[in-house]
């Protein structure tokens, strides 16, 4: 029984997006696709324990979901018209909108999920809505996980996703990869999606999930490679891929054997993946060689290149890190960027200077665990143990998973 439950969980992680994408392509409706996929997984929970796990779980789920979708269409009002539409869609092996995609673009795309991403990232939707919808429909994240990623309430995020699906349906947004001339303008939303999916895998926000979810980081990297193959000259696509590779290279050292988060300065750098580091550094160098002003992801990749170039944390070129953050602030003046810059400033100019910068962010980051964790560490360095303990307590209260909680608790308890 445990093996069946594990198989269902694994199938959900691996097959959810494939099933949703296949149904969206066939039926052209995100609600139908999502609900039919959910019904198919519910059927798996009911039938697999008795019938056994099928040899090809993805094919079983897709076939079952297709039948569920057709059954739903038949039950709805205007049954005859809906039934005719369903039969036409079901019998058309090419699927809807096949001929509406540029041939060159169509040849370059081998994955239905990329079509689904571009649909969810359509410019008719607000930027934050594109990201949230794609995380749900493609990444398979729960509404709660997405809400934590956006630092908003779960109910508000659920409403946002529901409205987005309704708008796609009402506006008849096509399920296809954009034409070649539209791709540059559309890709920024896709990159934002992939980065958030990657971040959720690298350090999950949910307390009831594994702290690190390699399946999500691998999926984000795989899709980033597909986008890069489609747009090889786009600097930000290359920058995001480099950033993901350099962060992923440190994953083996990110969580200890006891399940505790390991901070960058405490990681075993010998366990970092040198092949990923080499590939990430190569991409960063290639972008620098173009002489084109870097974008946000390219700068973040360069920052991570500095970190992964240091064999020991004491060898880190913090002046270069701060200079890169100064560039990034001019492109992205978000409080998260300012917080990360302050962490680097602490290594260069001292904890007191950094704390003053962090305290200026309180109004904007009061509900963010990393803000309080950063304050706690800076206060600890300054010998202000009582205030540090209070900041650790607040960070622990807001922490998203067990690895973060374990790390913060140990640091707090070391105060005595």
Automatic annotation (TrEMBL):
One of its GO terms (biological process) is DNA-templated transcription initiation. Keywords: Sigma factor, Transcription, Transcription regulation. Residues 186-286 form the DUF6596 domain. Pfam families: DUF6596 (PF20239), Sigma70_r2 (PF04542), Sigma70_r4_2 (PF08281). It comes from the Bacteria. Transmembrane segments: none annotated. Residues 117-168 form the RNA polymerase sigma factor 70 region 4 type domain. This is RNA polymerase sigma-70 factor (ECF subfamily). Belongs to the sigma-70 factor family. ECF subfamily. Residues 18-78 form the RNA polymerase sigma-70 region domain. The keyword Transcription regulation applies. The keyword Transcription regulation applies. One of its GO terms (molecular function) is DNA binding.
